[in-house]
UniProtKB/TrEMBL annotation:
Annotated SMART domains: ETF
GO biological process: fatty acid beta-oxidation using acyl-CoA dehydrogenase
Record's cofactor remark: Binds 1 FAD per dimer.
Every Electron transfer flavoprotein alpha/beta-subunit N-terminal domain range: 9-192
Residues that coordinate or bind FAD: 216, 241-242, 255-259, 272-279, 293
Protein's recorded name: Electron transfer flavoprotein subunit alpha/FixB family protein
Superkingdom of the organism of origin: Bacteria
Source species of the chain: Candidatus Eubacterium avistercoris
Length: 329
């Protein structure tokens, strides 16, 4: 089923604990900047229960319209049926998805349903005279590709979290459309027995407001515990460089960078991290960067808002103590 009468951009707004995930809101903000130039509109699609608050957030992030499907569903096949029906009815030119676990599951199935190709893990959109190209990486981040899409419509595109900045403007207004799309349960071939949260999933680096990350400079697994302790007192999530992960000081789910996760917390504390481009590319969107490194010429200081030159193993306990003291007051 290829769509021919296409216009407008559609963004799937995934919910986590009832609220839109940042990755979807970031896409809405970016796409809302593209739409007026081409005279097109941005439509968000939300599926779940009690979605009205999420719909308002989607409008604040850039949606002109929000299609709400109030339904308690949990299986991928149910989402696929609903999103296929919506795509068929509204005929978007591009259907964007966050490159979350769910987005990664949905995108290939939907491109099969619409008989188009998909472009995954996009990190940038390049505006062209006609339409745009998508930037995404391959070969473990060694190569950045700029891809033109000529596979028909709708273009099915997933965007990596933190690729764009989310901006919420609560004064924006938009249209809310309720759709009641039936799900044909006889077509569902799987049965959901149990949902088990993997440890890797529980590391929600992309949504974290504070990330405390450690690198090779922490020196040992025992010293790396200080990074975890600092993250704990800051109510943050632990990040790590590739060498820290390869040394097995922490699991791969914590890797920040080109071949890891892209993060954009309000505060990023880099401990014993040199500032290699492959690491910086995953955290340079952070709001405020604090770096602790014993080498005053370390490149991480070039992007840090505050730099502390010193031994991280000595500095971190002092920081932990100071934060605890501040909290106790
Ligand atoms: C294709 C590819 C993809 C990659 N993807 C990633 C990725 O996703 N994420 C990633 O992080 N890396 C990635 N890398 C690796 C990257 O190139 C760097 O090697 C890595 O980021 C460096 O990690 P680091 O800062 O922990 O270690 P180093 O570069 O060795 O830096 C350690 C730093 O600690 C400082 N230090 C030492 N002792 C102390 C101390 N006691 N106190 C304070 N500071 C101290 C040193 O001065 C130094 O600056 C990738 C590489 C390639 C080729």
């Amino acid at each position: 089923m290829k769509l021919t009468n296409v216009k407008d951009y559609m963004v799937y707004v995934e919910l986590a604990d009832g609220a839109p995930v940042n990755a979807s809101l970031e896409i809405l903000t970016r796409v809302s900047r593209l739409a007026p130039k081409s005279g097109e509109q941005v439509t968000a699609v939300i599926i779940g229960q009690n979605v009205s608050e999420g719909a308002q957030t989607a409008i604040a992030a850039g949606a002109d319209k929000v299609i709400c499907v109030e339904k308690e569903i949990s299986q991928l096949e149910e989402y696929v049926q609903i999103l296929t029906a919506i795509g068929k009815k509204y005929q978007p030119r591009v259907f964007f998805f966050p490159a979350t676990q769910m987005g990664k599951d949905l995108v290939p199935v939907l491109s099969y349903k619409f008989d188009t190709a998909s472009i995954t893990d996009v990190t940038d959109i390049v505006e062209k005279a006609e339409g745009f190209d998508y930037v995404c990486s391959s070969y473990n981040g060694n190569i950045l590709n700029e891809i033109s899409y000529e596979a028909g419509f709708p273009q099915i595109v997933s965007v990596k979290s933190s690729s764009f900045k989310k901006e919420l403007d609560s004064s924006r207004t938009g249209e809310i459309i309720s759709e009641d799309i039936p799900v044909d349960r006889s077509l569902i071939k799987t049965e959901l027995k149990e949902t088990v949260k993997e440890i890797a999933e529980a590391v929600n680096l992309e949504e974290a407001q504070v990330v405390v990350a450690g690198g090779r400079g922490m020196g040992s697994k025992e010293n790396f515990e200080l990074v975890k302790e600092l993250a704990d007192v800051c109510k943050g999530v632990v990040g790590a460089t590739r060498p820290a992960i390869e040394s097995e000081w922490i699991s791969r789910a914590h890797q920040v960078g080109q071949s890891g996760k892209t993060v954009a917390p309000k505060l990023y504390i880099a401990c014993g991290i040199s500032g290699a481009t492959q690491h910086i590319s995953g955290m340079s969107g952070s709001g405020y960067i604090v770096a602790i490194n014993k080498d005053e010429d370390a490149p991480i200081f070039d992007i840090a808002d505050v730099g502390i030159v010193g031994d991280a193993v000595k500095v971190i306990p002092l920081l932990i103590e100071a934060i605890k003291k501040e909290k106790a007051q």
